[in-house]
Amino acid sequence: MNVSRITPGSSAATGAASPEAAESDPRVRALRAPAPTTSAGRGDRFEMSEAARAHQAEVAEHHAEVESARAALRAEGDLTPERVARLQQRVEEGFYDRPEVVATVAERAAADLRASEG
């Protein structure tokens, strides 16, 4: 097997019979043309699809919500074993199933959503 390097203008690169014929080949001219540059003087470009931009926005929003929740937990103080036991007891007793508690939780959740949207 014989492998040779193919360079722009060679007859192997274009299948042309001579260097003169290669010069008229648009593929060779494209290889010799300077690379397009951006305003920053670089030839590289990056484009994101609309789907990728939407996903990035969702991830950023989720990250903000997580950070907000972390801040709220820090503001509440430590979750001690005693506090966990008390919460567990209230759940078992059905405290959080009462209509007035459900309504309060729903109102606070709605207010939180309104605050995060605005």
Walk me through the structure:
The chain has 118 residues and is mainly alpha-helical. Among the domains are: 48-77; 79-118, no CATH class. It is built from 6 helices and no strands. The longest helix is centred in the middle third of the chain and has 27 residues, at 50-76. The termini are far apart. 3% of the residues are buried. The model has no long low-confidence stretch (mean pLDDT 78).
Provide keyphrases for this structure:
single chain; 118 residues; mainly alpha
Helix tally equals 6
Helix content: 55-70%
**Tell me, what's the shape?**
rod-shaped
C-alpha-based Rg, rounded: 33 Å
Average residue-wise pLDDT: 78
How is the biggest beta sheet arranged? Answer: none
Work out the strand percent: under 5%
Topology:
Elements: H1 11-14, H2 19-23, H3 26-32, H4 50-76, H5 81-93, H6 99-117
In short:
By secondary structure, this protein is an all-alpha fold.
